[in-house]
Specification:
Layout: H1 10-16, E1 33-36, E2 42-44, H2 46-60, E3 68-72, H3 78-88, E4 91-94, E5 115-118, H4 125-134, E6 137-142, E7 153-156, H5 162-179
Parallel strand pairs: 3-4, 3-5, 5-6, 6-7
Antiparallel strand pairs: 1-2
């Protein structure tokens, strides 16, 4: 696949380790696996990762920022999510997600939304079950070992590494802004990948 079709240069994807999976793989995620290395780690297909990030950004662009909720217990994503909140105005929950936030109006933390993005269906499972009960569409960053039950749109990627998480959220932010016509193209996006990646 030629570089100009991809959202980021192949080299950027590889350096971030976005394609490095785990030694475990689930049936659904095996569709996105390119190969299994000799050390047992599964390697995700870069073209599929790129394609899914583009689809997810286009899909999220159908929603106003205040209707988007992003949840992540993965510390490697906190800098990226704070940047997304600053640039787009999305709602974020970093660290522990308070159960009932999407379903119990009595809670101080109660929020309403139309779509939720989770960094890892395993660590963010309480947010996912709330979203399911509330009828909220769920987008999930899924590694090779993730189950995809109750996920409407899966983005295959390494959802454990800080460089990988930073890159996914960087691209989602940039492409969301392009799809919403907030900027014309990626040249107008004034932020660097480093702005989204934890030190």
């Amino acid at each position: 696949m030629s570089e100009d079709v991809l959202l980021a240069p192949t080299d950027t994807y590889l350096k971030a380790g976005i394609h490095i999976g785990t030694k475990n793989k689930t049936a659904y995620m095996s569709n996105f696996i390119y190969k299994t290395r000799s050390d047992g780690l599964s390697v995700l297909n870069l073209q599929e990762i790129d394609k899914r990030i583009a689809i997810a950004a286009k899909f999220l662009a159908n929603y106003d920022p205040e209707d988007i909720i992003i949840v992540s217990r993965r510390e490697g994503s906190f800098k990226a999510l704070n940047k997304m909140k600053e640039l787009l105005g999305v709602k974020i929950f970093t660290g522990r997600y308070p159960p009932g936030t999407l379903t119990n109006p009595q809670l101080d933390t109660f929020v309403e939304g139309k779509v939720i993005v989770v960094s890892d269906p395993y660590t963010d499972n309480s947010a996912m079950s709330d979203a399911f009960r509330a009828g909220i569409v769920t987008v999930g960053l899924c590694d090779t070992n993730n189950q995809t039950n109750n996920i409407d749109l899966a983005i295959p990627c390494n959802n454990k590494g800080k460089k990988s998480l930073g890159l996914v959220y960087y691209l989602l932010t940039r492409e969301y802004m392009i799809n919403r016509k907030l900027i014309k193209n990626e040249k107008e996006f004034e932020y660097k990948l480093e702005d989204f990646v934890e030190e």
